[in-house]
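Backbone-to-sequence.
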């Protein structure tokens, strides 16, 4: 036996096993909302079968990320106007450290507060972790990397380096960690919003070295979209097709494919906005990729589209499109990112309050489950163990059977005073990590209390 090859195989297997027990970034280990299938509990509440819970200083739309024995959470202290990075011991729930990471940087209107209304704040982007560092990103442009002991490794501010943001709302794209690099999209207007921002900056994609924080490259992303339709708040998704390492970017009336090493655009499809007539169609969901197909969600009750990533797209003829949901307008999403799990797409319609399962290649609707509550459902669905987990603005958590669409669990995880909860449920091994505005829970399938 070749000992070197055997050792290398062992390391690869160990690495994959370790990754299977983590949720290193917003959409999980596969960048599609799914986790490896391990038994997951559907018999829990805010007081039942909880391994641990930890108090949080304030709200955030960010999803917790999990690396090894550490859980990293972005948050705010609204009273002190601090942007926080928090590290929690995965085994005990003890807060290992809590750091004020915000630089205090403001756009040109110096009176802007950290809390930008009840629906968002500067702590909306989710952190990422790679086994060495945890990187926190904030809506004011701050990016800060810390080791697991809480020591600051590097920091930078995107606005200071590349110009003030031109957004109607709050910059909230989460970075993507892929192939040893960090990718961040800044898709924004080419004019000021609320009399602030650098109109000359345009939209761009950054590739950053996670070890140093230095830019590897910057790619300008052009579009014929106008005004708010240029704005996008989603995250970059990797795609490996034809043996190439690539990534997908969605927003500004188009979806594009890029070479991961250089950022060069290799493919473009769109638009669902003919002649770019609609100027207020900002996009919030990220793309989701499965079976060489990318699904994107046009905004404000518009259809979703499935495009063949191996096709030669043509915007005029819609060549490359496999299907869309124009005939079924209840299959739509304005905010949540769809899920790809076991060769199917799952779409959470936040405006119609329903969850649907679709065949990946045809778009055929296999089931649609109507959701309860007057509150909006805006956290993106995640899945493991043939269960789909979702949470609404009030902290109502539901588990839906992925095969039948039947409800398996419905439980309140937040106090009656909480609202606008947007964090997705992270899944790592046999544990669920549920973040409300004031607490984070670790639910473990083996826990009985």
């Amino acid at each position: 036996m070749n000992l070197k090859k055997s050792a290398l195989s062992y390391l690869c297997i160990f690495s994959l096993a370790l990754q299977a027990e983590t949720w290193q970034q917003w959409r999980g280990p596969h960048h599609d909302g799914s986790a490896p299938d391990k038994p997951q509990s559907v018999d829990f509440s805010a007081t039942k079968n909880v391994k641990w819970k930890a108090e949080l200083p304030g709200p955030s739309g960010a999803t917790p990320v999990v690396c090894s024995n550490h859980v990293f959470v972005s948050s705010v202290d609204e009273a002190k106007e601090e942007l926080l990075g928090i590290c929690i011991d995965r085994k005990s729930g003890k807060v290992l450290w809590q750091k004020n990471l915000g630089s205090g940087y403001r756009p040109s209107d110096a009176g802007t507060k950290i809390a930008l209304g009840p629906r968002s704040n500067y702590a909306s982007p989710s952190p990422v972790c790679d086994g060495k560092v945890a990187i926190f990103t904030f809506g004011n442009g701050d990016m800060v990397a810390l080791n697991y002991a809480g020591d600051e490794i590097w920091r930078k501010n995107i606005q200071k380096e590349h110009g003030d943001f031109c957004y109607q709302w709050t910059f909230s794209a989460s970075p993507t960690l892929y192939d040893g690099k960090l990718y961040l999209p800044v898709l924004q207007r080419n004019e000021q919003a609320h009399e602030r921002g650098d109109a000359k900056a345009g939209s761009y994609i950054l590739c950053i070295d996670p070890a140093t924080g230095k830019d590897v490259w910057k790619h300008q992303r052009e579009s014929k979209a106008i005004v708010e339709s240029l704005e996008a708040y989603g995250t970059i998704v990797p795609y490996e097709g034809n043996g190439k390492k690539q990534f997908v970017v969605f927003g500004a009336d188009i979806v594009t494919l890029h070479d991961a090493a250089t950022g060069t655009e290799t493919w473009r499809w769109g638009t669902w906005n003919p002649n770019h007539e609609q100027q207020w169609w900002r996009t919030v969901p990220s793309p989701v990729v499965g079976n060489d197909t990318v699904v994107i969600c046009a905004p404000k009750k518009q259809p979703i589209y499935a495009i063949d990533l191996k096709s030669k797209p043509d915007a005029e003829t819609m060549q490359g499109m496999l299907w869309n949901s124009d005939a079924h307008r209840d299959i739509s999403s304005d905010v949540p990112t769809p899920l790809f799990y076991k060769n199917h797409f799952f779409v959470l319609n936040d405006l119609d309050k329903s969850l649907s399962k679709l065949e990946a290649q045809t778009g055929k609707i296999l089931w649609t489950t109507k959701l309860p509550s007057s509150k909006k459902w805006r956290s993106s669905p995640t899945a493991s163990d043939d269960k789909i987990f979702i949470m609404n603005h009030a902290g109502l958590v539901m588990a839906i059977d992925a095969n039948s669409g039947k409800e398996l669990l419905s439980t309140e995880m937040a106090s009656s005073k909480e609202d606008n909860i947007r964090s997705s449920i992270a899944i790592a091994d046999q544990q669920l990590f549920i973040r409300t505005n004031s607490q984070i829970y670790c639910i473990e399938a083996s826990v009985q209390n």
